[in-house]
Write a structure and sequence with these properties.
By secondary structure, the protein is an alpha/beta fold. It has a single domain, classed as Rossmann fold (3-Layer(aba) Sandwich). Helix content is 31%, strand content 16%. It is built from 9 helices and 8 strands. Strands 3-2-1-4-5-6-7-8 form an 8-stranded mixed sheet, with helices on both faces. The radius of gyration is 16 Å and the shape is globular.
């Protein structure tokens, strides 16, 4: 795997692209306005970045980061994402996304909503609890002291292994939260959200997290 697809060229998407290219990956990056609008970003990222449509970003890579607002996920190229590993970086912001009853009532998680929308894809939660600008900055080599850990969640062990390997190459330890249904433990408003932790610290925090009603 040498190419990463990115759907959404905002803060998360562009900073994952920076980190991935620095780690030796090629990046296919897209937004909702078309490849031409990404000329400046691609020029900054360099020759290993290519601006494409969202559909081509999905088709051209086995692993695809979805970094669009939750309210926009129905606009994703669902057929092109079939059988892909889809990294979900989303969080629920009612003031942006509108009220979503299943999330308000804690009946689902953002990643489960995405998985339901693209049932033929394999969704893995990642990159949702780190500030975007820190993604290309905080990575350290394996074994480095105080190496930051990022959580993942997913229902497929092989897909989680691949995402874990990707995060390791970017410079992060990984803590497996469990299935998508447990991904709420690192979503907005939880103790681990945007908190810089080592693997041991994150493993200590997760069992203490209580699920509260969304506000």
């Amino acid at each position: 795997m040498t190419t990463i697809g990115i759907i959404g060229a905002g803060r998360i998407g562009s900073n994952v692209a920076r980190a991935a290219i620095r780690a030796g990956y090629d990046v296919l990056i897209s937004n909702s306005r078309g490849p031409a609008t990404l000329a400046d970003l691609v020029e900054e990222l360099g020759p290993h970045a290519t601006a494409v449509t969202a559909e081509d970003a999905a088709k051209g890579a086995h692993m695809v980061l979805v970094a669009v607002p939750l309210e926009k996920i129905r606009e994703l190229p669902r057929r092109a994402l079939a059988h892909k590993i889809v990294i979900d970086a989303n969080n629920y912001y009612p003031q942006r996304d509108g009220r979503i009853q299943a999330l308000d009532a804690n009946l689902s998680t953002t990643s489960e909503l995405l998985q339901d929308l693209i049932p033929d894809a394999i969704v893995v939660k990642a990159f949702n609890n780190i500030f975007a600008a820190e993604i290309p900055q905080d990575g350290k080599p394996a074994g480095a002291s105080n190496r930051r850990a990022l959580p993942i969640a997913g229902d497929d062990s092989s897909a989680k292994h691949m995402v874990s390997s990707f995060l390791d190459v970017l410079g992060y330890d990984v803590v497996d939260v469990g299935p998508l249904s447990e991904s709420w433990r690192v979503e907005r408003g939880t103790p681990a959200y945007t908190k810089r932790t080592t693997k041991r610290e994150l493993e200590f925090i997760l069992p203490t997290v209580e699920r509260v009603q969304q506000v």
